[in-house]
Amino acid sequence: MKIAVFSNKPYTERSFRQANEAFGHELVFFEERLNAETVSLANGSGAVCVFVNDELHAEVIKALSELGVQLIALRCAGFNNVDLAAAEKWGLSVVRVPAYSPYAVAEHTVGLILALNRQIYRAHMRVREGNFSLEGLLGFDLHGTTAGIVGTGKIGSVVARILNGFGCILYAYDLQPNPECLELGVRYVSMDDIYRLCRIITLHCPLTPQTYHLINAESIAKMQDGVMLINTSRGALVDTRAAIEGLKSGKIGYLGLDVYEEEADLFFEDLSNQIIQDDVFARLLMFPNVVVTGHQAFFTQNALTAIAETTLANVSAFERGECQNIVLCQKVVCRYKES
Asked: What string of H, E and C letters represents the secondary structure of 156-189?
């Protein structure tokens, strides 16, 4: 099948070309994000392969259908950027990569916790300048610290195992408790209890209408003073303006973000020679107790390989009239034919 791959980067192309040796699809790569202005690039393709910041709203999906595209293949787990009602209306199936490497994201999460707690980023810059003072770098033992995990799916459960190894006292919130976490001794509690009990709170839940701005002024007010907040899931789980107010007041003592609710015009690009136009994001970077990485948590060789292989396998399954790793399956045999 001919696949239009949007939001392409050199590492994306390398991993997909290598994986495609086992599948034989026709891959066409575009640096552009998929949106209403670029959708025509998909002309002649049976599938589009998209990432987290591609825009698949109703107008784009209608245009894809009119171009003959039958399949939206997400190379990520989340699908909040896809209008599923429009996809169903216009006859497009949607597949995803539900688990590329939970270890990659979980390990990055714990990396942010350690970097913030021991202020490794500040210590590194001091030593480079010949400053070996320890003043202002005081951390705390993770052993015995209360940590709350919001969402205990594949990633959250790996975070639980790692933090359990540090000796943290673990609490969690999830609509469905994970037996693996229960075996570790994780205690499932309400979100209010997470806010009240936990010195560290880390987010591992999907972005839905119910979780949009889950972390807001009201929830921040319920947290412990000096709480550490980590988000490696979806940017819009956190109301950034409310988080900034929490940082200014001292309610939030540490903030680690790998995602940002307005990241689409920032992340994955080199803007080092430009002025950042997002004033809210620029304000975040001014705090000494904030670490931001640019949607990097997934970025391991293991994960890139798994993403490419799973995505291409999903497309091959669709060609055979099967639905694999589905978000939305139209239950039709693929009608796409190579021209």
From this structure: HHHHHHHHHHHCCEEEEECCCCCHHHHHHCCEEC
